[in-house]
Amino acid sequence: MPTHAPTVADLNEKALLARIFPRLGAPKALLGPGDDAAIVAAPDGRTVISIDTLVQDADFRLSWPSGYRTSGFDVGWKCAAQNLSDINAMGAVATSLVVSLTLPGSTEVAWVEDLADGLAAAIHVLGASGCSVVGGDLGRGREVVVTAAVTGSLEGRAPVLRSGARPGDVVAVAGVLGRAAGGLAVLESSEDYASLHSDPSTENQVLLELAAAQCRPRPPLARGPEAAAAGATAMLDISDGLVRDAGRIAAASGVAVELDPAALARHAEPLQAAASRLGADALDWVLGGGEDHGLLAAFPAGTALPEGFERLGTVHDGAGVTVGGEAPRVAGWDHFAG
Amino acid sequence: MPTHAPTVADLNEKALLARIFPRLGAPKALLGPGDDAAIVAAPDGRTVISIDTLVQDADFRLSWPSGYRTSGFDVGWKCAAQNLSDINAMGAVATSLVVSLTLPGSTEVAWVEDLADGLAAAIHVLGASGCSVVGGDLGRGREVVVTAAVTGSLEGRAPVLRSGARPGDVVAVAGVLGRAAGGLAVLESSEDYASLHSDPSTENQVLLELAAAQCRPRPPLARGPEAAAAGATAMLDISDGLVRDAGRIAAASGVAVELDPAALARHAEPLQAAASRLGADALDWVLGGGEDHGLLAAFPAGTALPEGFERLGTVHDGAGVTVGGEAPRVAGWDHFAG
């Protein structure tokens, strides 16, 4: 018997899977885990599919400058959340996740169990009630890499693409802006996470909430299908920053997107005290921060915006993104930019 | 401009994607790459789905003791092949792949382009004519990790699970046994790959073919749906070794599998000279080697075996796997076994 906390190197693949699957709940599928593949219902004859990966030290740190240690729960939650969000952004509802874990042998089994709990919790809390983990893969590597592919059902609706925005449309957002970016700043700062946690002042609470937004984002999963039903002409989830992702709608649709400074200021205002304490600017977080996985959508002028959506700007002839008629001051995130 | 060969650190994500997608051919999907998710047809209202990962230094080495350097083409081919095989093993035909690449910044762009070519070539050469790469994800990491999720269509058939084998059934195999294991032995050996390549003796040719079987396996993709149509009661693809995978059918079906020594010897015989040269035993390769991704299936007694299947044994009351009535001498591969 090992004298240290058990690690994945202490278990064979079958034993490790036996620790994981009971935590994921009953699979909601025609065939769940255990065979060469799973089988998921596709009632309208179409399956929406996407894939997304989290890599240690690129997408998250196991240990942050603030002293915060990323839990397996955080990684499982974030993996599920960002994948479910891609289905939401098509106006679809998620039907399954398949998850591949690449883990160093030194990873504690408890951390992996926690990851499974985080996957299951995100699916439950975010309201993806028709979705479950139906399969996976386990392997060894030098760093933690977690990949999930997600399927979804359009339930007979047309998908909402990035390319359908038309001049005159209203641009609206559902979900939060800039909070995950603020959380990244907290985790990367010289603030001591343990001290924040032990002193429940209001200001500290805000910082802790921002950190939680980075580690366990809450994409507004019900809003995508509702936006589709309300006639959204274009939609995506904001994963790389508002300006960058608005630019994607503009480019795909062949239009210009103008964002309203007053609306942006309303999103930045509650973050300003925290940003000042960290030497940052809240508007930069709102314009450039990704990973909140809010929805950015365009609706025909005069549409009653569905619940949860807030007007953020307008679509015009032209190209690119402007804020109050000016070029925005921040770009977004690129995995490979220098 | 960089003075070295361009690496992924020299390109942003969009520019790297622009190098990859043209090599993958036109997507065969209702919606291909470029939006938050793709949309794949599921004509019979069901989608088969699986996920599988290749990790540098765990599933392949970039540089082997024999001097062979794994190409991007090899990795792309193997990624596609092993994923397509999981769909085949259900009796389904593949309909799409989504691929996530985690790459060190130092990876040459040409290597990534070669990986895209390998994905496309495997899909084409292995005959997955209804399948294409419909989406993906790119990110940075310390080592190469390639994950694909694959979808498939059962075309109205029932899936062939691992659990349906019944006493009296015939066990049969389609595809090759032991060749990828032999190839692993070649690559890991002190043979000099360049010398093998420059001396076209018959014996060297065999070693080169084994290495190719390891780097670019050829699962028999047409055979899965044919086996399903012929009434296969159980089926899986041999990815972790014949004995281990036969044991999975035995366990899932609650039966014993007896493998015929004479049939196994016929698979080992053509490999024996190569095995002897490398100080190995060909029967070990046949019994314990995975990664050829042949199909192991059970059929009711008296079934005319479909083309490409060869009788390998029988199903009995009991548990476990025997060879000529004895316990087999090798087990198979476990990613986490010590």
Your description of this structure?
2 copies of one chain form a homodimer. Chain A is of the alpha+beta class. Chain A has 11 helices and 11 strands. Chain A is globular, with a radius of gyration of 21 Å. Chain A has helices at residues 13-20, 72-88, 109-125, 179-188, 193-198, 202-215, 223-229, 242-253, 261-268, 272-277, 282-288, and strands at 38-41, 46-55, 93-103, 133-140, 145-153, 170-174, 234-237, 256-259, 295-299, 309-316, 320-323. In chain A, the strands form 2 sheets. A 6-stranded mixed sheet of chain A has the order 7-9-6-10-8-11, with helices on both faces. In chain A, strands 2-5-3-4 form a 4-stranded mixed sheet, with helices on one face. In chain A, α3 (109-125) links the parallel β3 and β4. The first copy, chain A, has 2 domains: 8-153, PurM-like, N-terminal domain (60s Ribosomal Protein L30, Chain: A, 2-Layer Sandwich); 170-323, PurM-like C-terminal domain (Phosphoribosyl-aminoimidazole Synthetase, Chain A, domain 2, Alpha-Beta Complex). At the A-B interface, α1, β1, β2, α2 and β3 of A face α1, β1, β2, α2 and β3 of B. β2 of chain A pairs antiparallel with β1 (38-41) of chain B.
